[in-house]
């Protein structure tokens, strides 16, 4: 069990005693007084416990950056914080605000620490932070930026092709000429013929800037494109992270695809460094990680296994990576023949699938390769250098985001060349062409037929990858000598799972962030425990399906499938809109709330990979549709529905506030002006009765559900982050809230005509009823829970509570209130959380009872009701399936996400009203 989860159980026991305290107080305006020692009543000056997400601590990593939320009014904006170990030793800390409450008090703070992180638990308190013994410093001069951690010094270029010009440790240069490499292929060899040619592009810097200057953490961002001759394409953004006292740095590398899918095939995409080789060949070492703790441990010129023995001490020293004694002291039958021992200068580890890697080596170009080993899933880590120093390097998610590769070239010469291939040149070229030709679906009516058969919304030209992005994470160590085996194992582990500090569920919950829609896991009654078991079942099942179905790959890792095909015992990976999920019905929200309440590291990592994927691959960052995401489909960009509901900042902000990740911050900031996308793409274009419709910037039809929630999420996040467009974001948030509230039927009106200039909706003259089962299931519930507490607009809150009260009401009740009913609605179980929210806000026990009724009862084709759900899996084996495994044919991602959100929020809001 992760440390945070263990601590949460201990805290829950201490707080609740024999009986559980209901957590409905988390959101209730007039909640009953909680126990004096409950998390909600803790003093603002009381320490927040900080622990490692996984066991093991910092290990070989440079440092950790983590976020902590605070209750409204607890800390002024200029508050300082200190970090200590469990036994009171000070840990140097750098703090900055990532969000504020409307009153100016701190809402989220980010904290960076590295030096002194030697324990398993820490205390975050108010106070003056300790200064690092070796501060990280940044100096800008001319065309370079120099970052000094006190142990290593990196010179970063502001122009040219070398983004890292040199990395030195003391007076020793460890690496130089850090650069980006792209191999392009203009066509594909299809079958057993063809002669497709490659061409190489090099990353060219367009600009670099310092984003943080220390004293504990420094961040430098470099932007540019890959260039050959007059053509520059494939924009990149690279961030380099440095921590005080560290001998390593981290790199976050992002590309945006802007090529022609029919002729710009990426053959290889890599990060390359040169490593000076100063030592004798027998004192140069190669280390390449295999699976688990496995390592290839070799020297460029090996003296083990020879016919003549140089001596046991010599052999042992070479294996350990230590400097060998003077050859004059060896057995001279070896010394005199050293020139006859081959030098092995080139190594390649290729991971072309999720399940297999190969390792080979050769002496030098022009000579043949020999096999050096292989296995299943390599760690993506290596080292090249010698006793006077060398470079360790690693690529995170190496096998999960196959095809990947590590190359070492020229280790027998004056400098070795290291390339970490994010896309292996030994794999098939990256093929992003659309997967079918539309089959005569040229008009909107014909295209809509696709929805009726494959559930795919097709439109010519819309199945394009132009503008999608992908981020990779790399880590490098500048070692003073060849690391010993234990150090290498720790370094490889830090690449695979970067150590992450975090606050626990109780401390996060008491801050009442994210609308207060979650509470720490509580199994104090059989009824609660039953729901918790089912939540665990659903997460564990989807996590297991990722492995069983091999949902891995450069563009795919982090997503899950949408719907199951029980006949084939297979997810519908090839059936139109039933394939990749692309955040449909908010699995991202389910996962993050599941983590916040449990502290489970496996849920965090699952949600982390989904956030990376859905925020980049499923959304556009360049071009006409920048700011929009793509509905679920066979390819992540295949469906022609490009919508706010997928690109929404609401799915990314959890990870941002928990880690302060700058790349996610970029993505959210870019969405602030995404209301302008309604000018370039009409989401209702296929169903409008007026064929001559042209978008009017003063009268854009924008819905109050999936559309507004996405816009509101971006505006809210920019406002609370105090971003460059915070004033505009706040104004848009307020003006849309005011004009939604002013509609004759509020949210039930469904949509309005939006003015881009004023940021307001036109007020309709006549009431109408337009309610969709999708409106509230893409973050509307979550964003309304936040903004109603942040912005005092009683009419807006009233309009939202009306929607919450009447969605699951009887048709008679709907008709009595609005003059007509809402029609036949589905997703009743997921909407039970609206009943729960309204029950707390209105202090209505009948609504609380209805929440649990709608959550548990059977509704045809809707959710996982108690009476009809087996909560079991069935064993599968050949020939039914490709690989043995399990299935729960009744599981769908839609139902899982909505069941998970309803269960979590109902327990937090009206858990004390849970029957049984």
Topology:
Elements: H1 3-16, E1 48-52, E2 64-69, E3 81-85, E4 90-91, E5 94-100, E6 106-113, E7 121-126, E8 137-141, E9 144-148, E10 152-157, E11 164-169, E12 172-185, E13 198-213, E14 217-228, E15 231-243, E16 248-256, E17 265-276, E18 284-289, E19 295-299, H2 312-320, H3 332-335, E20 346-353, E21 356-362, E22 370-375, E23 381-386, E24 389-395, E25 404-409, E26 415-423, H4 444-453, E27 469-479, H5 485-496, E28 501-503, H6 505-510, H7 526-548, E29 564-565, E30 570-571, H8 587-598, H9 601-616, E31 629-630, E32 642-643, H10 644-647, H11 653-659, H12 662-669, H13 677-680, E33 700-703, H14 706-721, H15 726-741, E34 751-755, E35 760-761, H16 780-790, H17 794-807, H18 811-818, H19 828-842, H20 845-856, E36 874-876, E37 885-887, H21 893-910
Give a description of the structure.
α8 packs across α21, α14 (706-721) runs antiparallel to α15 and α19 packs antiparallel against α20 (845-856). It contains 21 helices and 37 strands. Helix content is 26%, strand content 26%. The strands form seven sheets. The protein has a 20-stranded antiparallel beta sheet that branches. β36 and β37 (885-887) form a beta hairpin. It is α+β, with helices and mostly antiparallel strands.
Task: Name the descriptors.
916 residues; alpha+beta; 20-stranded antiparallel beta sheet; five-stranded antiparallel beta sheet; 21 helices; 37 strands; 26% helix; 26% strand; disordered N terminus
């Amino acid at each position: 069990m992760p440390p945070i989860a263990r601590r949460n159980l201990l805290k829950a026991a201490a707080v609740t005693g024999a009986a559980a305290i209901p957590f409905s107080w988390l959101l209730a305006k007039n909640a009953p007084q909680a126990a004096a020692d409950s998390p909600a009543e803790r003093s603002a000056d009381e320490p927040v416990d900080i622990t490692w997400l996984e066991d093991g601590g910092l290990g070989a990593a440079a440092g950790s950056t983590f976020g902590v939320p605070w209750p409204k009014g607890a800390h002024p904006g200029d508050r300082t914080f200190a970090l200590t170990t469990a036994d009171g030793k000070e840990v140097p800390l750098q703090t900055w605000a990532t969000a504020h409450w409307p009153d100016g008090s701190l809402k989220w703070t980010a904290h960076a620490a590295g030096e002194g992180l030697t324990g398993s638990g820490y205390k975050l308190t108010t106070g003056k932070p300790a200064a690092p013994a070796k501060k990280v410093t940044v100096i800008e001069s001319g065309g370079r930026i120099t970052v000094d951690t006190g142990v290593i010094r990196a010179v970063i270029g502001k122009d040219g092709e070398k983004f890292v010009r040199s990395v030195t440790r003391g007076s020793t240069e460890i690496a130089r000429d850090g650069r980006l490499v792209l191999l392009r292929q203009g066509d594909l060899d299809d079958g057993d013929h063809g002669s497709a040619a490659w061409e190489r592009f090099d990353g060219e810097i367009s600009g670099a800037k310092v984003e943080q200057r220390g004293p504990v953490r420094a961040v430098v961002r470099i932007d540019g494109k890959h260039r050959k001759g007059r053509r520059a394409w494939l924009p990149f953004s690279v961030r380099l992270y440095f921590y005080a006292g560290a001998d390593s740095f981290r790199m976050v590398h992002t590309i945006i695809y802007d090529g022609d899918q029919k002729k710009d095939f990426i053959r290889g995409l890599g990060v390359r460094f040169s490593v000076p080789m100063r030592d004798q060949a027998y004192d140069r070492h190669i280390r390449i990680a295999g699976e688990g703790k496995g390592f290839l441990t070799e020297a460029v010129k090996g003296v083990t296994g020879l016919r003549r023995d140089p001596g046991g001490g010599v052999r042992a020293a070479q294996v350990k990576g230590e400097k060998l004694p003077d050859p004059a002291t060896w057995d001279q039958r070896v010394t005199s023949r050293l020139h006859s021992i081959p030098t092995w200068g080139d190594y390649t580890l290729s991971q072309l699938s999720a399940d297999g890697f190969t390792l080979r080596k050769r002496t030098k170009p022009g000579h043949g390769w020999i096999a050096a080993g292989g296995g299943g899933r390599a760690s993506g880590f290596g080292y090249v250098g010698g006793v006077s120093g060398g470079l360790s390097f690693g690529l995170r998610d190496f096998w999960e985001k196959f095809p990947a590769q590590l190359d070492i070239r020229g280790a027998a010469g004056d400098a070795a060349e290291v390339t970490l291939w994010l896309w292996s040149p030994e794999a098939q070229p990256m093929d992003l062409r659309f997967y079918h030709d539309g089959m005569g679906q040229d008009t909107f009516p014909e295209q809509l037929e696709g929805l009726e058969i494959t559930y795919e919304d097709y439109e010519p030209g819309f199945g394009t990858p132009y503008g999608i992005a992908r981020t990779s994470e790399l880590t490098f160590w500048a070692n003073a000598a060849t690391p010993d085996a234990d150090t290498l194992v720790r370094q490889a582990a830090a690449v695979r799972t970067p150590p992450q500090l975090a606050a626990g569920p109780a401390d996060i919950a008491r801050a009442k962030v994210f609308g207060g829609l979650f509470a720490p896991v509580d199994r104090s009654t059989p009824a609660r425990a039953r729901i918790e078991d089912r939540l665990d079942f659903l997460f564990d099942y989807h996590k297991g399906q990722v492995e069983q179905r091999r949902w891995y790959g450069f563009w795919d890792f982090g997503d899950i499938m949408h719907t199951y095909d029980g006949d084939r015992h297979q997810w519908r990976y090839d059936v139109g809109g039933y394939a990749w999920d692309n955040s449909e019905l908010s699995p991202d929200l389910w996962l993050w709330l599941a983590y916040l309440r449990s502290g489970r590291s496996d849920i965090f990592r699952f949600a982390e990979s989904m956030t990376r994927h859905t925020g980049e691959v499923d959304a556009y960052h360049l071009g006409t549709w920048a700011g929009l995401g793509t509905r679920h489909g066979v390819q992540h960009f295949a469906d022609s529905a490009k919508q706010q509901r997928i690109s929404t900042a609401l799915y990314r902000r959890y990870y941002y506030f928990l880690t302060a990740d700058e790349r996610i911050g970029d993505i959210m900031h870019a969405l602030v002006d995404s209301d302008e996308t309604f000018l370039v793409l009409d989401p209702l274009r296929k169903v409008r009765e007026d064929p001559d419709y042209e978008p009017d910037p003063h009268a854009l039809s924008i819905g109050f559900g999936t559309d507004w929630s996405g816009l509101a999420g971006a505006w809210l996040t920019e406002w609370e982050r105090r971003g460059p467009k915070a004033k505009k974001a706040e104004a848009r948030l307020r003006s849309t809230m005011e004009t939604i509230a002013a509609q004759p039927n509020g949210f039930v009106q469904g949509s309005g005509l939006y003015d881009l200039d004023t940021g307001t909706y036109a007020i309709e003259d006549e009431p109408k009823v337009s309610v969709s089962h999708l409106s509230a299931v893409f973050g509307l519930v979550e964003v309304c829970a936040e903004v109603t507490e942040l912005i005092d607009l009683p009419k807006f809150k009233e309009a939202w509570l009306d929607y919450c009260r009447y969605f699951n009401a009887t048709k008679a009740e709907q008709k009595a209130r609005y003059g007509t009913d809402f029609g036949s609605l589905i997703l009743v179980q997921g909407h039970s959380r609206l009943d729960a929210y309204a029950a707390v806000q209105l202090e209505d026990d009948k609504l609380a009872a209805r929440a649990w009724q709608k959550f548990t009862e059977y509704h045809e084709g809707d959710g996982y009701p108690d009476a009809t759900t087996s909560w079991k899996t069935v064993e599968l084996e050949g020939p039914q399936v490709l690989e043995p495994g399990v299935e729960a044919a009744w599981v769908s991602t839609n139902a899982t996400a909505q069941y998970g959100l309803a269960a979590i929020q109902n327990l937090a809001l009206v858990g004390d009203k849970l029957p049984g």
